[in-house]
């Protein structure tokens, strides 16, 4: 039997006063800090992108009290040790593929995103984000198709990634909880974005809410992510000082029009330290 809350939400949507999930605009300012210490909660930005598991609900509440929106990061395509559900993920070895040692993450492994079991685990992560009060989720590592198919037979393909993201998007956009509803009484669900995965931008820009990109200036591929801008959706863009020390180039490189760019120290980590782009080149 549907709850009184569910009936009330449905009534709101029917009469047109219930809006969609959080959908930031092109150019929305942001900070990304995936270390446990996310630093100042008072930066002049609208969004904080933080780790889902190393931050408590109270930190998210504090950010909300300061008028910030919170996107919660998790790896949707790889196994990571020391996550609350790591043992559950590894319970079926058939779902755990090759190591990411060549990419610099030897303790991680690609996951079989075709597996219903893995999809269900990631939906539980979205539930956790909702329960903590996140406004959106940042699912990383969805490009196994570009990394030997994850080591699976048959290899994971770009179409597998698109189908996987569409499944998670439908779930995120329609999810709700009493806490989320109390804070956002006129919205439903969570926003969800793409992380890198340039080969599937054109296939996902229509249903995802933003894209987070790293190093498109360094690799001369920023035009790849412009379809999101064309659909009125932000590109949250990161370059790294250690890899590219020309901040002006990083902030105003070719095809970065409309991007929300921040500069971080080094690609191996995403600490609280951040450099914001100036108003103009």
Question: Describe it for me?
Answer:
With 281 residues, the protein is an alpha/beta fold. It has a single domain, classed as Aldolase class I (TIM Barrel, Alpha-Beta Barrel), CATH 3.20.20.70. The chain contains 9 helices and 13 strands. It has helices spanning 4-14, 57-65, 86-90, 116-132, 158-174, 178-183, 201-204, 226-230, 247-251; strands spanning 30-33, 47-51, 69-75, 78-79, 96-100, 105-111, 136-140, 191-192, 194-195, 211-214, 235-240, 260-264, 275-276. Strands 1-2-3-7-8 form a 5-stranded parallel beta sheet. Helix 2 links the parallel strand 2 (47-51) and strand 3. Helix 4 runs parallel beside helix 5 (158-174). The longest helix is centred in the middle third of the chain and has 17 residues, at 116-132. It is globular, with a radius of gyration of 19 Å.
Based on CA atoms alone, the radius of gyration comes out at 19 Å
- Helix content class: 25-40%
CATH domain class name: Alpha Beta
Biggest sheet features = 5 strands, parallel
Instruction: Give the tally of β-strands.
Output: 13
Could you list some keywords that capture this structure?
5-stranded mixed sheet, 5-stranded parallel sheet, 9 helices, 281 residues, alpha/beta, disordered N terminus, globular, TIM Barrel
Secondary structure: elements and pairs:
Elements: H1 4-14, E1 30-33, E2 47-51, H2 57-65, E3 69-75, E4 78-79, H3 86-90, E5 96-100, E6 105-111, H4 116-132, E7 136-140, H5 158-174, H6 178-183, E8 191-192, E9 194-195, H7 201-204, E10 211-214, H8 226-230, E11 235-240, H9 247-251, E12 260-264, E13 275-276
Parallel strand pairs: 1-2, 2-3, 3-7, 7-8, 9-10, 10-11, 11-12
Antiparallel strand pairs: 4-6, 5-6, 12-13
